[in-house]
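Appendix B.2, paired examples.
Example (i):
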Amino acid sequence: MTPVRPQEAGANLAAIEALPAASRADASSASQTSGPALYAALDLGTNSCRMLIAEPKGSQFTVIDSFSKSVQLGLGLEASGRLGRASMERAVQALRICQRKLEKHGVTHKRLVATEACRRARNARDFIRQVRRETGMGLEIIEPEEEARLAVISCAPLVSPRTEQLLVVDIGGGSTELVWIDLSAVPAEERPRSIMNLHLGFDAQGDGPAARVVDWISVPLGVATLKDQFGDVQDDAARFALMSWFFEENLANFSPYNAEHPKEGFQIIGTSGTVTTVAASFLGLRRYDRNKVDGLVMTSNQIDFVIRDYLALGPEGRRTDPRIGRDRHSLIMSGAAILQTLMRIWPTDRLSVADRGLREGLLYAQMSAHGVLEDGPFA
């Protein structure tokens, strides 16, 4: 499996339109809508179906309703190349719930996207048609570069003013996106907003100093697909070591991999269920609390301590550990292998934890395109 990357070196990407035609039509009618405008973002991934409904508020947004459910859409995809019938039915059932929520709140501005599982499955188009037929929802399969871009802009509020070199990591179910950004030419107080401006595209140039995307990569290995690669290895520790090695092998062509950068001014932001689960385990949260997790900074030693604890627990111990949860226990070690690899090979001993990602990026992109977010510092 060859990682997907730009055809040209560095960040010479073709400009990506911020929104599809349907959403641009929403923008033209936004001024005609009475009452507060609500926006929705739905992410149907390899493992989960998630949706947020939100209202713009200042330079941020307020979540009105949300949905998250493990549907395992990509179960068996690695072996068959197709989405299974049971997997598609689980996804459709989850999407029916989402559609009822959209109707209940009268949402008119929305993007409903599918990612790696649908990108890879031979029968993805048949599934998309089934979804429209049974739920009325129009799912859009987005490309890896847009998935990476949306993950980046979702993390803009967490970018430190001291950050000159930024690596954003989004560990998904079927793929992992990494984006390296140079902020050294941007004034410190403008760095978070320069990240937000990337909603126009990785090569977009705004007024004044801009964030520069040095390189990016989408590795077709996420928590589900990496786990499937080594499902036949019985020994828990050996399987973890193999997953870590295999993921690192797939990063060899990412240009910053062999670059020398000082730790000072370098920041890694990790966004994924893996990262937030590790953070919750470190904090000892038996009940997840987003307010305690989002924005937490963890050291490499703290992350390693949690991962060693996971290995000591073994498969059965992880299954019953309330900090991990029953929806994630079978996937946490493949995600931990990716996370530990990234912390080992890049020049930093700290990770900023982001409980945000594609859905938040979809919301920010829509709201930015519609001009409903106020200028000002991020909260």
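Example (ii):
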Amino acid sequence: MPFNLPRGVRDYGPSEAIALHETISVVEEIFKRFGFYPIMTPALESIETLNSKVYGEESTKEIFLLQDGESGLRFDLTVPLARFVAGRKDLPLPFKRYQIDRAWRKDEPQHMRFREFIQADIDIIGASETKSDAEVIAATAKALEALGIDYTIFINHRVLLSSILDFFKIPASKHPTVMRILDKMAKIQHEELISQMASAGIALRLAEDLFMFLTEKKTNSDLLGKISGSLGGETPELRAISELLEILMQYGLRGKIEIDLSLARGLDYYTGFIYEFVSFHEGKRLPTIASGGRYDNLIGAFSKASLPAVGCSVGISRVVDLINSGSRKTAANIFVAYIAEEDFPYALEVANSLRESGKYVDMNLHKRSISKQLEYVNALGIKYVAIIGKIEREAGKVKLRNMLSGEEELVAVADINKKVR
């Protein structure tokens, strides 16, 4: 009887793991092109760090605590980064880091939502100008583009949202709760949202008016004009949004960029811009694939000195599910097969030569007929086979077969690189 996995986690078989690693490789390459460099932090963080309330009271309930009573699994990669930066005085600023790693949340498992997941984070620490926000957003967008993903970027500003809540006479003490409710707008029914607002002490008519104001569909320029008129003039946050949109235009991003006044982001540490990257399938919005924002006060929670900071996180696990590229069963693009045992030394020599030239090579390692070897190749979906028998061995060549077309030719090992790409 097989053992069952805990709820909210999963195995990655060869196909899924190949897609996962290749996705990570693409994202990492784009991050490096934008000048980000890696750090690594431990999966475990101290209870003191995890209970620092920088996540927000609701999010701390989703942290996995260990039995030692001293530590727990990290909830994301941002708070460990803040703790890391706060303890280092030798970092050049701005500090542009990326980290691709696992995180854990004791959340209720849903479609494309797991308790263990892989994130790819980029952050800029020590830069407060809008240029740094734009750089983080653009690097994330370019990574998704490199993976062939269509996306829309939804942008808002936490201070602007707070000003709107003030405009609707919602007490400042209730802003964090209301923002956490707003963060669920794409995930739960409208009736449930209203119910949660009522539980937070917000009158039904007020909640309905707020939702109508926040979700009205307009162009970016019309939305900025609407808010300016409601708030009595252009605020610094409105000017910042206009500046961000203008800078992002210069990156030549392929995706749409839309202001979304209802966007809140559930974590309490955000202080400025917030954004989400979303894909759609047949008109239906899919779970968020990347998100982030500015968190200028977070590092100050771990240090006497506060530093401005902005970052974004790509949900690698979700991206792999989205691109659905898990069809390959092996990374090998050529298989070395041989007919008789006396052919093995030459076959190994050929395999080693191909590996040295950069090919991903599998080869036969136990006694079986050539037909069985080819069955194995077909099962793994490897396109090319280098077949070696007495004739090939004595000629110092291989019989190269294209398994898709069935074409064969006798070629020198040095010429295989021209054939197999």
